[in-house]
């Protein structure tokens, strides 16, 4: 199979893509390393192996765009410009967390950059994201889009069908980004959905513009997402893009879980060989865009950034008990 050309991605995006790949990988690997210390008391869902899609979205979206995410939201939050230290402080339950230390890993928000929140409930942010699209249309916010990140499992929720139908009927500026990693917890796609059904084709039947691509190959991923996103921005109605990818670690937690038997070691190794980070590094070096030492220098910079962010997050105090019931209702919010 011919590889999509690296030239499909504008060269001035290469550094940003590589930095985002490194950032997501480094922070999540460090979360996995530190999690057994017992200081992060919330469940955490890692997206190691799935960095390609959010990295591409990071160079296609702008601060004025809006986004909502799932329980596996670290990468989406960072890709939208979320604050790294605030994210880590939230996971540690500290006062400087992006949700005030109340929500933990699955409830991240940063309205400053248009990241409107994530949730633990599968499919729960889909109608919220469509509501954001409706608000943009009502406000006549030209060229702004609302992005709804979802997994293949959310396609099985009624909320998806209702929200997608509403988005199509109202011609809303919404892009559904489906990261298909083949599994919902321990259940494979084969036991949850008809084997001859493709998510992108299902979306097209609902009236959504749709396309499917390889989430681990960044040029191909970029070439799949960019045209659909441009159509949504141009007011041509909602779209769904399905990107194939694969999570390396367990559904929830820092460990590997191939010993459980719901997926094979051979399958895991085949997908790991298609690591989006390594593949992009190789393409940049093979085509003379970057040298190995340039990549290493950038990665060390990101590693230092991540270590400093962990130190800053852990140095913060826990919220006072008196804060437990503040910011619960709208009238409690500042501003």
Automatic annotation (TrEMBL):
InterPro entries: DH_E1, PDH_E1_Alpha_Subunit, THDP-binding
Record carries keyword Oxidoreductase: yes
Protein name: Thiamine pyrophosphate-dependent dehydrogenase E1 component subunit alpha
Species of the source: Balneatrix alpica
UniProtKB keywords: Oxidoreductase, Thiamine pyrophosphate
SUPFAM superfamilies the UniProt entry points to: Thiamin diphosphate-binding fold (THDP-binding)
CDD domains linked: TPP_E1_PDC_ADC_BCADC (cd02000)
Keyword Oxidoreductase in annotation: yes
Location of the Dehydrogenase E1 component domain: 21-320
Domain of life the protein comes from: Bacteria
């Amino acid at each position: 199979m011919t590889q999509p050309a690296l030239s499909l991605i504008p060269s001035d995006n290469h550094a940003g893509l590589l930095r985002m790949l490194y950032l997501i990988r480094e922070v999540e690997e460090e979360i996995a390393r530190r999690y057994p210390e017992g200081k992060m008391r919330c469940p955490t869902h890692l997206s190691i192996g799935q960095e390609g899609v959010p990295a591409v979205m990071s160079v296609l979206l702008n601060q004025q765009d809006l986004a909502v995410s799932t329980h596996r939201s670290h990468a989406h939050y960072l890709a939208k410009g979320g604050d790294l230290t605030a994210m880590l402080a939230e996971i540690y339950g500290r006062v400087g967390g992006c949700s005030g230390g109340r929500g933990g890993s699955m409830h991240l928000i940063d309205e400053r950059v248009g990241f409107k929140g994530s949730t633990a409930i599968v499919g729960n942010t889909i109608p919220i994201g469509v509501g954001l699209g409706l608000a943009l249309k009502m406000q006549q916010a030209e060229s702004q889009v609302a992005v709804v990140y979802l997994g293949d499992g959310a396609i099985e929720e009624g909320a998806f069908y209702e929200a997608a139908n509403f988005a199509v009927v109202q011609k809303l500026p919404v892009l559904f980004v489906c990261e298909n990693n083949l599994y919902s917890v321990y259940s494979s796609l084969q036991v949850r959905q008809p084997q001859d059904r493709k998510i992108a084709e299902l979306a097209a039947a609902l009236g959504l513009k749709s396309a499917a691509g390889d989430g681990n190959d960044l040029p191909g991923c970029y070439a799949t997402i960019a045209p659909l996103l441009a159509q949504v921005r141009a007011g041509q109605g909602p779209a769904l893009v399905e990107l194939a990818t694969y999570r390396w670690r367990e559904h929830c937690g820092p460990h590997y879980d191939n010993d459980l038997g719901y997926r094979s070691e051979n399958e895991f190794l085949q997908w790991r060989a298609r690591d989006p980070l390594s593949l992009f590094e190789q393409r940049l070096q093979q085509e003379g865009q970057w040298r190995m030492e340039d990549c290493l220098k950038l990665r060390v910079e990101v590693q230092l950034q991540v270590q400093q962010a962990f130190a800053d997050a852990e140095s913060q105090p826990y919220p006072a008990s008196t804060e437990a019931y503040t910011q619960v209702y709208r009238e409690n919010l500042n501003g």
